[in-house]
Amino acid sequence: MNNEQELKAVVREKYAKIAGQEKADNAASCCGATPISNKIYNIMMDDYSDTAGYVEDADLGLGCGLPTQFAQIAKGDTVIDLGSGAGNDCFVARHETGIEGKVIGIDFTPEMIDKARSNAEKLGYHNVEFRQGDIDAMPVNDAVADIIVSNCVLNLVPNKEKVINEIFRVLKPGGHFSISDIVLQGDLPDALKQDAEMYAGCVAGAIQRTDYLHYIEAAGFHQITLQKEKPITIPDDILAKYLSSEQMAEFNQGDTGIFSITVYAEKPGGSTKKPKVKLSVLQNQELGCEPGSGCC
């Protein structure tokens, strides 16, 4: 694959184009970045339409979960959304924080920032702001946020460990995050791993689930909780661009799994909000924790 700056340039270019497309066009592709498929609609994204605070014009169909649903946002909280796109998760979060709270969206694509700001202005939301910048070097001071959310974005950043350390820096002591993202179990075929389109499409940039969870633990977070998990299937008409029929059959019948997971974790200190769902024994072992040790 390319170096970090080249990968970021690929993602920025793709998502600049997506900012000008309709939701149906974006949802008809893998995270809005791969060739149109007649099967892929809704395989990653979850339905926001019944969620309080949902704004249809701000929903580009690019997510892989509903992190705000699990984030335990309270009135008056300061919430940061990483990779805020057109602003949908920010507006849902704003419904929960109320006018007493504050929501900051961070995105590195200028076209997305413009679209989100336009949406906020139309809605008359004065406590939602959007800042352009990389989420691995956030334009935010230390210990600002009560809660951080993100929806299918960390997989697009080459250095996931750096992003997770930034999340730790920006959260207040006792703050927490709820993040939906794509992870792997097993190895993708080289043709998928090495393709820039698949990287921008949220698949090739995903890392192993165990590595993802270990980065969170190594950053200093505790109460690490798997809140939701769902398998992701890449339709054959997309796989056919990269793999032969024999390779497709081997991939589909093999042990490699692609998953959307929503993970919760707390920064130590202050007053904490306890998660509703604990990690299973297997997941504790994946993090290097002994069952009942309390390290997760």
Brief digest:
The chain is α/β, with parallel strands linked by helices and 296 residues long.
Task: Characterise this structure.
The chain has 296 residues and is of the alpha/beta class. It has one domain (4-271): Vaccinia Virus protein VP39 (Rossmann fold), CATH 3.40.50.150. It is 33% helix and 21% strand. It is built from twelve helices and eight strands. Strands 1, 2, 3, 4, 5, 6, 7 and 8 form an eight-stranded mixed β-sheet that branches. Helix 5 links the parallel strand 2 (102-107) and strand 3. The longest helix is centred in the first third of the chain and has 16 residues, at 4-19.
Query: Which range best describes the helical content: under 10%, 10-25%, 25-40%, 40-55%, 55-70% or over 70%?
Result: 25-40%
Provide the CATH superfamily.
Vaccinia Virus protein VP39
Tell me the CATH architecture.
3-Layer(aba) Sandwich
Sheet with most strands:
8 strands, mixed
> What proportion strand?
15-25%
Tell me the span between the first and last alpha carbons.
Answer: 34 Å
The rough form would be described as globular
**CATH topology value:** Rossmann fold
Estimated radius of gyration: 18 Å
Give me the count of strands.
Answer: 8
Q: Which whole number gives the mean pLDDT?
A: 80
Order of helices and strands: HHHEHEHEEHEHHEHEHHEH
Number of domains: 1
Number of helical elements = 12
- Uncertain segments of ≥5 residues (pLDDT<50)? 27-43, 276-296
The CATH class label is Alpha Beta
- Structure classification: alpha/beta
